[in-house]
Amino acid sequence: MTLAQPTTQLPITNYQSPFLSACKREPVDVTPVWFMRQAGRYMPEYRAIREKYSLLEICYHPELAAEVTLQPVRALGVDAAILFADILLPAIPLGVGLEFAKGEGPVLQNPVRTMDDVKNLRPVNPDSDLGYVMDAIRLLRGTLRHGSAQASNGVPLIGFCGAPFTVASYLIEGGSSREFLKTKTMMYSAPEVWHALMERLSVVLSDYLVAQIRAGVQAVQVFDSWVGALSPSDYEAFVLPYSQKVLTAAKNEGVPVIHFGTNTTTLLPLMKRAGGDVIGLDWRIPLDDGWKLLGDDVAVQGNLDPAVLFAPRDEIKKRVHDILRRAAGKPGHIFNLGHGILQNTPVDNVKIVVDLVHEYMER
Length: 363
Ligand code: CP3
Fold this sequence. Notes:
Layout: H1 18-23, H2 44-52, H3 55-60, H4 62-76, E1 81-82, H5 91-94, E2 98-101, E3 105-108, H6 115-119, H7 126-129, H8 131-146, E4 157-162, H9 164-173, H10 181-189, H11 191-215, E5 219-224, H12 232-251, E6 257-261, H13 268-274, E7 278-280, H14 287-294, E8 299-304, H15 313-327, E9 333-337, H16 347-359
Parallel strand pairs: 1-4, 4-5, 5-6, 6-7, 7-8, 8-9
Antiparallel strand pairs: 2-3
Helix pairs in contact: 4-8, 9-11, 10-11, 11-12, 12-13, 15-16
The structure holds coproporphyrinogen III.
Residues 36-41, 50, 55, 82, 84, 86-88, 100, 105-106, 160, 176, 223, 225, 340 line the site of coproporphyrinogen III.
């Protein structure tokens, strides 16, 4: 690639990313918008690649991971790219036997249930054991900065990891779960095993996130997708200190940190205490109420119900505008869904949301 090629792109030096500005609660001209799971099966371009490669094969090949990361940036015009990877990748070098079974989601051959299981978890060096993730980041930052034919105008790249609780729940349950019964049983009946596992995970996940930042991601998101299964007191005793370690490790690297969960209405003040420049809000709480609970000294991200993307255009518009009205032009709102894009979401409706957010003027 030659750097001197003519390009229709904005000069990067003058480009102020509205996403990064909003993370820092700086004023922006337009509200930035991106979507969790913006790369995925709802996109025909993604399905075309998935016909030939498994999810893990895409992750293992930096050029494929980079291509899939850029697909939604090109198709939708979102204000941030999220690295294509999965929160369970660090489980592979830990040695728990991760597989993505067709149609079933993640399955672990060797779940973690006892102190011996925790002790048998292998050491993880993110730069060697997850080097393919770092290579994808380096490839994307080259592409994103210098602009290959269709790359986007210096759109910032978000790295991510799972939070210790959400990753622990997969390790203990052996896959996805509704009740988190094995997870809570470990917490309540064998707290020493729980704390040993969370301690281990908080180190592995901190190292992994720091390695991503050093490879070039410009912001990070910590996904505590299932933490809303806990009461505030259990969150405080069993989760908060470990999430805090991961969030603080990332913060110390100097990039904005997004702390995300769902079903967290009663946990928001504690999640803020754990850390994050930006806190995720799902659709169960109106954006202004959630922001009031958190206080003005953090930014917020959200909070459209992913199911709204299946509604007619006028209904989508009403609900997008309702969120923007509640944000009231206050610096520090990043538009997103309250959780990831659902599988059969019409691409056109996702694009409608991007345009509605970018065209919204009433301030
Ligand atoms: O576009 C992006 O957001 C980046 C890529 C991304 C993936 N997983 C790829 C993926 C991200 C950010 C994740 C995070 C992730 N992975 C979470 C947290 C976010 C959330 O949704 O709460 C969780 C819980 C996982 C674990 C996981 N990975 C599950 C439960 C599944 C199966 C369920 C499903 O949706 O199929 C996966 C598989 C997975 N990871 C897919 C994608 C695009 C599914 C599509 C495929 O198989 O091609």
